[in-house]
Design a protein that fits this description.
Elements lengths: L1 E10 L4 E11 L4 E12 L1 H19 L7 E6 L2 H7 L11 H14 L3 E5 L6 H19 L1
Parallel strand pairs: 1-4, 4-5
Antiparallel strand pairs: 1-2, 2-3
Protein name: Ribonuclease HI family protein
GO molecular function: nucleic acid binding; RNA-DNA hybrid ribonuclease activity
Pfam families: RVT_3
Length: 143
């Protein structure tokens, strides 16, 4: 089974209130899960990586049954995609621990993953979820 995972991190004011959004679907386009999480105050690039880590941890639980053969990640962050594909080195001291955590999960769980850059236009659902996480957290604070 092929799993398509659309990830996005949003940060308002960069750094600012941030959220992660993840849309997980099967190879036919049927949604399996929608995940969102408020991340506190962080940068956009950190939020992108945190969205990836949230998705990897969620998928690690799904792979216990052995049903997933390939995971295709899609992100509108060229930086994340190129770093995960080994095309760019990781220079930021804030990003490096997140990158290493993602790589560790991939190695330990033996997940077969690919990373593909897509334009924002094709990542609207994950972006919507990331912003919804921020909106919900801020709404709770104002109560």
């Amino acid at each position: 089974m092929v799993i398509n995972v659309y990830i996005d991190g949003a940060s308002r004011n960069n750094p600012g209130n941030a959220g992660a959004g993840i849309l997980i679907g099967d190879g036919t386009g049927v949604a399996i899960a929608e995940l969102k999480e408020y991340l506190g105050i962080t940068t956009n690039n950190e939020a992108e990586y945190k969205a990836l880590i949230i998705a990897l941890n969620y998928l690690s639980k799904m792979t216990v049954s052995g049903d997933i053969f390939k995971i295709a990640f899609f992100s509108d962050s060229q930086l994340l995609v190129k770093q995960m594909n080994g095309e760019y080195s990781v220079k930021s001291p804030n990003i490096l621990p997140l990158y290493l955590e993602a790589k560790k999960i991939l190695k330990n769980r033996r997940l077969d993953c690919s990373f593909t850059y897509i334009s924002r236009e094709f990542n609207k659902q994950a972006d919507r979820l990331a912003n919804l996480a921020i909106d919900e957290a801020l709404a709770l604070r104002s109560c």
